[in-house]
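Cross-posting from the modeling subforum.

Setting up a comparison between two proteins and wanted a second pair of eyes on the formatting. Protein 1 (sequence, then structure tokens):
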Amino acid sequence: MKAIYITKEAMDIFDSIESQDESYPKIIYGLIKLMNRNTVSAADGRLTIGKDALTPEVLKQLLGDLETDKNYKLFVNSFFINLINKREKKENKEDMGFYKNQLQKQADQMNTKLMKFTDDLWVLLDKISRKSSDIVWAIYELDSNATIPNKLGIEELGISDMNSYFSIKRGGKPGQMKIAQFIRYYFKDRFTQIDINRFISEYNKIVVGSDNYKPYVADKILKPRDFKYEPKNVRETFISLVTETYPYGHEDELLPYLPKDLKKDKHGNYYMVVGDSDTVFTCHLDTASRTKSKVNLVDYNKDGDSFLKTNGSSILGADDKSGVAIILYMIAHNVPGVYWFFLGEERGGIGSGKVVDDYLSYPFMKNKKKMISFDRRNYYSVITEQMSTVCCSNEFASSLCDELNKSGLKMNLDPTGIFTDSANFIEVIPECTNVSVGYFNEHTHDEIQNITFLERLAEACVAVDWDKLVVKRKIGFDDEVMTKFSKLIRDFKRMVFYNMDTIKGVEGKLTIDLEINDTDVSHFYKDMVALQELFDLHRLDPDIQFDEEHIKIVL
């Protein structure tokens, strides 16, 4: 398989898509994982994923059946819509003409017209999104989207100077359309009347103005105290960690807030070993922002709990400073374990991926059986699957829930995990999970953190009998196999096959199994060539077993 490289422009657009729509995380993280697992050089053999090479066919080739063909097509369409919006802001008219023509061709093929938004509507929608995000994101989908039928033939959508109306243009002629009518037409029963009324109210406040309207930024700003290293004070620790955003590449700037005796690995991650335990705890230092910025914190109470948010000018960064706060609290209470502070999780688990690729160089990670990440939204989840792959056994997850719930929490098994750093370790550590830490609306300016819950969770984690947790799941390689075949395993994992591949190692034997689910002859041939190249590289000539559904190789 060719190495892949994702351009910065493409990565920026992936971020934009992810913040708008949760439908495509598997595609985005699948691509990022491939990039991180490949050695990327300037060689002609690498595949660059950018505007010139992103097609549904390429996604299918790289990711196989990770998603449906329809979703691959929708993702590519969303990519180019976001590209257009991004470049329009930069006034890059030469490239824009080409991609607009491409989208218009799509529209012509579907016998529909492209609906385009005015600049002032984009600005208004961005303001409303802070209070009525669901409808706003739905409306976003309509801009220059050839996949959504535009049966009314609206060519341009903009702001009206009338209450509760959009301005429209059809057949080159200007007009007005009631917002409620517009939403009902394009989204049918997707939204309640209450949702629609709330959106219209926010729209009217901005367009027409109101004496009763108070802008979102009018919330009382919390002034953090002077920093004092006090990890047992969860609230103040968290506040210190989120006074600024720390995108990938800025993680070292958090060192003043972390223990002085942390160690730094060769990849830039930080870690600490406390006592002797087979348990690993993880969090990540980076936030999902692209730029470094100050955070204006807002403190409020609801239903007896204390919450923190921002004034709407930035993300909060609870993803994953809440996890950092939990880990600092556990270290301060001398809970035995290996503690990792990873970098670049929001860029596809860069730091943790490098640790896995270099796993044998970390002797303190030998024989670790459990890995717990603190990086999940809501109050209830102990994740059992990530990226549609089982990451821990139900028995382990249940035993962890029981331990946490004895402190009054209400944790349950949750198979809907997407990705965090522990997902990179599922082939080297038997039980890997991700635990809810009480944040919501991550990656958006509406992100909030329940501080009361975070404090309760920290106390619960100290009370857990970590040695008592059930370890049931089996991983692919024993120590003997890793000693003999570590380089082969590493190179195999960097390859992507058309057919479903698994690799396991038990009792000194390494087994590679290719389940034949892609019957295209050319694809099957390419898989065989890739395997041959792998074995030639490692000077191996293994016996190969064939049947109707599998190709099995035992070393």
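Protein 2 (same layout):
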Amino acid sequence: MSTLKNELDNAIRKRRTFAIISHPDAGKTTLTEKLLLYGGAIHLAGSIKSRKTQRHAVSDWMEIEKQRGISVTSSVLQFEYAGYRINILDTPGHQDFSEDTYRTLMAVDSAVMVIDVAKGVEDQTKKLFKVCKQRGIPIFTFINKLDHYGKMPIDILDEIENVLGIRAYPMNWPIGTDGQYLGVFDRRNNKAALFAADTTHGQEARSADIYEAASPELVKRVGNTIWKALKEDLELLDEAGEEFDLEKVAAGELTPIYFGSAMTNFGVQDFLDGYIELAPPPAPRDSSIGIIEPNDEKFSAFIFKIQANMNPAHRDRLAFIRICSGKFERNMNVWHEKSGKIIKLAQPQQFLAQDRQIIDIAYPGDIVGLFDPGIFGIGDTICDEDKKFKFADFPVFPPEKFARVQAKDTMKRKQFVKGIEQLTQEGAIQLFQQAGAGTESYIVGTVGTLQFEVLEYRLKNEYHVDIVMNMQPYELARWMAAKDGSEITPASLKGADRGMFVYDLNGAPVLLVSNEWALGWITDNNPNLLLNHVPFDKREV
């Protein structure tokens, strides 16, 4: 075995790359913050809602996120823990940003699902879980907010199994009574961890006393009533519950469950230790030439995210890549599949949210930020020029909301065009030009209405452009082509006035209509017409 192969195998074995998914407000970003705390990446943890110290979560770097207390873009966080390299991708919880979340899930090897103990499985969790299920991504579950009153642990298990359709295995079990839990019982190691009182409001790591099962000290500390209830619960789980099967976990058929409270650091380290042990290392990837193994000596990666203005002072653009195979080295030359050119990867960076450092090497599973001079797009493949191929395309979301957007001040048109085109390249919005309408305004399409607020905020604060935005009455977009290959124009399309005829950035004709009835009329009256929810060379999510 070659020296490089050995080096790759060792690095791959020590890497864990995962996304954290949840419904908004389940505590996802707070958990991310606490994992960083235990990893030694930060010394004082901030929470989304922290007002005492006015610290904001490290992963919520964008100003609008700090103001609204929600995550609107995925962030990348990296740290070392117990000899492992952890890559966390924190994702937006809000459904309007599910496209960004979906792309993020393309770049990970496992997912951590955060569930609020009081609310159980919520709508957005179901949607994100479905995506993970489709891709066969192993899912680890963290039942959060155990410091609040909530559903009984056994009821939460039932809900996960019945609503999501995945078997559940509790790795630990809460000790105590609802809202006043004293610690957790580690089922695999047969030990109890009782936590010290939280005196720092979750800003520092929380110590725990470890007891052997059924030790007199444990019974004495928790009291007979609680000990008896715990014993009964554990017997029930052993008799009627699932058996632990790591192969089923790897296949996404069984989810290991951990109970805790991210806010108070209750059970967080227990979860982190368990996750590192059980989660899969970087996995092989499908490509145009077959399966690419992570320990393949030829370098390859794909771009899953582009972010403009992470550093407002420099007006920079970063492309985030997931390394899939080989060894990444600073200033290396790679083949860029989309342009067909050889490019140099200078100034590669790794992240703690917006804080970054230049790196010299990275390995499969790692997430690296590259300076983007405007050549990269989401889904692009970069690889060794001696082994050229393309990773599978990213699916895309059809837009459902539309607005006409133009600069309030015509003198700022140049900044407006630059801003809106750069934000389009990030993938949060889609841009269209109305046929025959000139270039003073754009039609913007999004998956949800919140993106419009973010667009307006970022154009004003990052590009210093105030905009006029008029919502449009359309809910459906269809890309058009002719069965006989002829050109489709507003003049050739019967009933074009029943909607809006626009072109996407590649010049492809698109029809916007308000309902299925209008679409049906146009289809019936244009027998030569082919329609698609997304561009013809893309596939729909």
